Amino acid sequence: MRKSERLFRLLSRIMQAAMLASLLIPSPVFAQPPREPPTISSEDAMRFWSDLEVDLLIDEITDAALLAIEQAAGEAAKAAVLSMAHREAVLLAQARRWQVEAENNLSLARNAEREGRKNVLLGVLFGVLGGFAAGAAGVWVAGR
User: Residue 38 contacts by C-beta under 8 Å, 6 or more apart in sequence?
Assistant: First the structure.
């Protein structure tokens, strides 16, 4: 039981260190500066866009959307890791409680076994002494 307890503690510490490291190490996606969309000065300044400008605008919007998707995926992955870690911690705590309960039940069973042996020995001792007393009393009464 002691070996499994040490193993649980070691695995728990390794998992905690891995989760902490994954949360503290910045990912390359978040290291990039955020992009700002081009601003339009006023509605009066509207003009016709060339095909190249439209393509460039579409590329910029696509890049911004991909960046947002990567950031959302990173946040979702971190949330999933935290959720999994929480479930794992709850399961480890539950396993530890069951282990403590099993150890308590085992010690109670051992104590009950010891008490049962003691009661049997006392019963035998009192039976033998009672038999000697009854035999001595019978001899004493018969000898009179």
Answer: 57, 60
Rg of the Cα atoms in the chain: 40
Q: Where are the alpha helices (DSSP H) in 25-50?
A: 28-31
Nearest in space to 29 (alpha carbons), one of 77, 61, 97 = 77
pLDDT of 85 > 70? The answer is: yes
Give the model's pLDDT for residue 1.
56
Rounded Cα–Cα distance for residues 30 and 67 (Å):
9
Decide if 30 contacts 74 (C-beta within 8 A). yes
* Residue 51: HSE in the Cβ half-sphere, 13 Å Cα cutoff: 0
* 26-74 pLDDT tens trace: 665 555 555 666 666 555 555 666 788 888 888 999 999 999 999 889 8
CA 96 to chain centre: 10
Question: How far is residue 59's CA from residue 17's CA, in Å, rounded to a whole number?
Answer: 40
pLDDT at position 27:
61
